[in-house]
Write a structure and sequence with these properties.
The chain is α/β, with parallel strands linked by helices. Helices cover 39% and strands 13% of the residues. A 4-stranded mixed sheet has the order 1-9-8-5, with helices on both faces. Strands 3-2-4 form a 3-stranded parallel sheet, sandwiched between helices. α2 (36-49) packs across α8 and α3 packs parallel to α4. Pyridoxal-5'-phosphate (PLP) binds next to α3 and α4.
Length: 395
């Protein structure tokens, strides 16, 4: 049996006609830059995230970059972030001339650890006050501890840029002053939230695309100007921006897919439950296989709805590299996200990060493995994945 890590074919087959029609509409309109398809998607994403504004951009990377540019973060500045994420999080910081400060991640979620952030912010405030933004990442589709991160941002008066590239639609509980819990969507809690429409995301285009959402209308206007060379009006440039515009062909495809996003999240959640049951039945849970945890699955002891969107389903295992090879030889797709922490990347060698140590992130880089979790995965395929893993550990 073949079990690819991700199979986009079922989605493409189901929506082929609608997508072709949408794309043809753009082609026939002869409006190829921004235009109504982009505006329509921006409004739909703003509504979906329950924010006022959304600005379509060329990729998730550029969503981060344009946020940093609009905040005028640059040489001499630091941005507090996680060492355990896709490279783009850190790449965007270097691209504006700033440098990252890394806080290790939490064991349960592999998201940035607010205790460590608090220490670093305090240290920075006693020194040169160079940390100018906080960039948490909602890794694998689960929100970072935003309640604590928002409190830190308020205390130190630093804006939050949420790297929500993997987490569109994920939710996070915030407790109001009256004690009631508000579930907020990824991206809607910081100054900006940055999404990627890379094809492997839960909402993926047929190429690159991204979006920045914000509740600050003036900042949205600034972002709109930065994504278009800092021009407002045309040919009058108050800032040095870039060409970070979302392509209308991508926007038209994403508008076809967006109404189905919640259903795909639900199917991924159902697949996660199936894995949990199968691993439990096989006696693998806890040792040797640590399954991903929904860290907000109950509040004050009460069960709450599943907030995780499972862009990735990550297990932690001993002998990870041998297991990966074993699965691949048996036609099961799997991948390591991510094998090298950012502070250990070769391109940082000259900056002195190599001497730093982030033990939780480093351990995750050594033992985490992504299994197939896409919506159309069948029960039989999941059973085959778990049987094969059981076979590996019994051998
Ligand atoms: C956490 C994270 N940040 C940023 C990005 C960058 O998004 P894009 O590939 O659309 O530039 C990604 C995409 O994979 C990501 O996973």
């Amino acid at each position: 049996m073949d079990v690819p890590l991700l199979d986009l074919q079922p989605q493409m087959t189901r929506f082929r006609e609608e997508i072709l029609q949408a794309v043809t509409g753009v082609i026939d309109s002869t409006r190829y830059i921004l235009g109504p398809q982009v505006t329509e998607l921006e409004q739909a994403i703003a509504d979906y995230c329950k924010v006022d504004d959304a600005v379509g951009v060329s990729s998730g990377t550029d969503a981060l970059l344009v946020s940093l540019m609009a905040l005028e973060i640059g040489p001499g500045d630091l941005v507090l972030t996680t060492p355990y994420t896709f490279f783009a999080t850190m790449g965007s910081i270097f691209r504006v001339g700033a440098m990252p400060v890394f806080a290790d991640v939490e064991k349960r979620s592999l998201n940035i650890d607010p205790d460590r952030m608090a220490e670093l912010l305090e240290e920075d405030r006693r020194g040169e006050c160079r940390i100018k933004a906080i960039m948490p990442v909602h890794l694998y589709g689960q929100c970072a501890d935003m309640e604590r991160i928002i409190a830190l941002a308020a205390q130190y008066e630093i804006p939050i840029i949420e790297d929500s590239a993997q987490a569109i639609g994920a939710e996070c509980p915030l407790v109001d002053q009256d004690g009631s819990v508000q579930w907020r969507r990824a991206g809607s809690m910081g100054l900006t939230g940055c999404f990627s429409f890379f094809p492997s995301k839960n909402l993926g285009g047929i190429g690159d695309g991204g979006m920045v959402v914000t509740r600050d209308h003036d900042f949205a206007e600034l972002l709109r100007s930065y994504r278009n060379h800092g021009a407002e009006p045309k040919y009058y440039h108050s800032h040095i921006g870039g060409n970070f515009r979302l392509d209308p062909i991508q926007a038209s495809v994403l508008s076809v897919k967006l109404p189905h996003l919640e259903q795909w999240h639900q199917q991924r959640r159902a697949n996660s439950s199936v894995y949990h049951n199968l691993f439990e039945q096989a006696g693998l849970t806890g040792d040797p296989v640590i399954l991903p945890e929904s860290v907000y699955s109950n509040i004050d002891g009460a069960e709450v709805h599943d907030f995780h969107i499972y862009n990735q389903f990550i297990i932690r295992v001993p002998r990870r590299d041998a297991l990966r090879e074993y699965l691949q030889q048996r036609s099961i797709g799997c991948e390591v996200y991510y094998p090298v922490c950012l502070h250990e990347q070769q391109c940082l060698a000259e900056y002195g990060y190599g001497d730093l140590s982030f033990p939780v992130a480093e351990q995750a880089a050594g033992d985490s493995l992504a299994l197939p979790i896409y919506p159309e995965l069948s029960d039989e395929q999941q059973a085959y994945v778990v049987e094969t893993i059981a076979g590996f550990f019994q051998a």
